[in-house]
Design goal:
The protein is of the alpha/beta class and 451 residues long. The strands form seven sheets. The protein has a five-stranded parallel β-sheet with strand order 3-2-1-7-18. The protein is globular and about 70 Å long. The model has no long low-confidence stretch (mean pLDDT 96).
Length: 451
């Protein structure tokens, strides 16, 4: 059996490694890039100088995969798929050579690409990614290097980040570390609004302002101005002189290869089952940022693009292809971020997102000291839970504190995965020691006080 994997970053890499380890099939990968397994979540740390050597942001290489018996083709683009005959048409980008290859099973791991909104002046012909000079994306290793090269220029003093999701918020701190004047522009009324509710984002916004970031919320970019490169950003509320812009307004699946054949969500994500098999073609699997994943919160297939999901999806798909029956156990979309020293984590849906999805929910917000007040030092922790009206089933949780309690989100994530109710979580067995918490800690109290 011959299995071809298109795309070889997180999902594709782990699918290929798992397939090769089984010794049950021939494994071939194609990727248009020249590197694999880059941890894009580390770009801001690299840009900010926290990570000195970007080699640490890779956990595999084409050479390491080759040593495992995988036939690796970097710098190759799959331009067309003949689904009926299980044939790929491929172009070697360096030479222009074109050829065909056949598969028995196909794994699509084509990933995602930054959203390119229809803003006047954003695009420019002849540049690497089609963006006006001075405007950058932040996803690939090469893009991280381009950003680093740009901010090293003495005349780049004023930087705007468009989009206050995780990447955007991380980048503003990185640019501040370089002594730049930083503007954060966000069309939504809050930062990180897809992950946290207002009780939590208020605290993050306070720290962003205290750090000296010029923050504009509820403001939409309308135009980029400048002849040879970007010089000014025009919004619906004003205009701003800039030397550099980073676009960080989300990601969209790379759907060009399959959009006319496979079933997808409106955004282009391939609909799969819990074995990662596509809904239309039993010989085609889809994993990572180009596919859906089963959400334990909504109990539906959703688009939740995270590296953690991608790795698990790759392992599940590979196991099922070689005959091991493994089902994806679902995801809660757990994530965390450090905002100028303030630690935040979330899992499942925020209250605002859950309501947008049509779920009938209730919530409880709780603030408490992390450990007894008789201890010499202690910090407050903010925690919020979201749960289903009537049943009490947990749907989401958010944590924020100066001290790092982010990993506690794993307990809430597992509770959502197992379908636990607020009442069950409130009575869960958590240890007590004054060094760390209270007899009834903030984790259980947020559930005890829920109504």
């Amino acid at each position: 059996m011959k299995v071809i994997v298109i795309g070889c970053n997180h999902a594709g890499t782990w699918a290929a490694k798992t397939l090769a380890a089984s010794k049950k099939c021939e494994v071939v990968t194609y990727d248009r890039n020249d590197n694999i397994s880059f941890l894009a979540c580390g770009i801001a740390l690299w840009v900010g100088g926290v990570v000195k050597d970007p080699k640490g942001l890779f956990y595999a290489s084409p050479e390491s995969l080759t040593s495992e018996g995988i036939k690796v083709h970097m710098g190759h683009e799959v331009t067309k798929i003949d689904w009926a005959n299980k044939k790929l048409h491929i172009k070697e980008l360096k030479t222009g050579k074109e050829f065909d290859d056949n598969y028995d099973k196909l794994i699509l791991a084509t990933g995602s690409w930054p959203v390119t909104p229809p803003i006047e002046g954003l695009m420019q012909e002849g540049t690497t990614y089609g963006l006006k000079k001075g405007i950058f994306f932040s996803k690939l290793y090469q893009q991280g290097q381009e950003i680093i090269n740009e901010i090293a220029k003495p005349d780049v003093k004023r930087v705007m980040v468009v989009g206050a999701g995780y990447i955007g918020v991380e980048l503003i701190e990185a640019f501040k570390n370089h002594g730049k004047e930083v503007i954060l522009m966000e069309a939504m009324p809050r930062v990180m609004a897809n992950y946290f509710d207002k009780e939590i984002t208020d605290e993050a916004e306070k720290r962003i302002k205290d750090a000296g970031i010029e923050m504009h919320l509820g403001e939409t970019v309308k135009k980029f101005e400048g002849d040879d490169r970007v010089k000014k950003v025009v919004t619906d509320k004003g205009s701003y002189d800039v030397d550099m812009v980073v676009m960080s307004v989300g990601f969209r699946p790379n759907s060009e290869l399959y959009k006319d054949y496979l079933e997808t969500l409106p955004n282009g994500a391939i609909v799969v089952d819990t074995t990662m098999k596509s809904s239309k073609d039993p010989d085609v699997y889809a994993i990572g940022d180009c596919s859906t994943v089963y959400s334990r919160a909504s109990e539906k297939q959703e688009y939740i693009a995270l590296a953690t999901n991608a790795v698990r999806m790759g392992i599940v798909a590979a196991n099922n292809i070689v005959g091991n029956k493994v089902e994806y156990c679902g995801t809660q979309g757990s994530n965390a971020i450090c905002v100028f020293g303030y630690n935040m984590a979330s899992t499942g849906w925020s209250e605002e997102t859950a309501k947008k999805k049509g779920l009938k929910v209730k919530s409880n917000f709780f603030k408490d000291a992390e450990r007894p007040e008789f201890m010499p030092t202690y910090e407050d922790v903010l925690v919020k839970i979201i749960y289903e009206e009537g049943s009490g089933r947990l749907l989401g949780a958010q944590i924020a504190s100066n001290h790092n309690h982010a990993e506690a989100i794993h307990a809430f994530s597992l509770a959502i995965q197992r379908g636990m109710t607020v009442q069950e979580f409130a009575l869960s067995d958590f240890f007590f020691l004054p060094h760390y918490n209270k007899p009834l800690s903030w984790m259980t109290m947020v559930a005890f006080t829920a109504k």
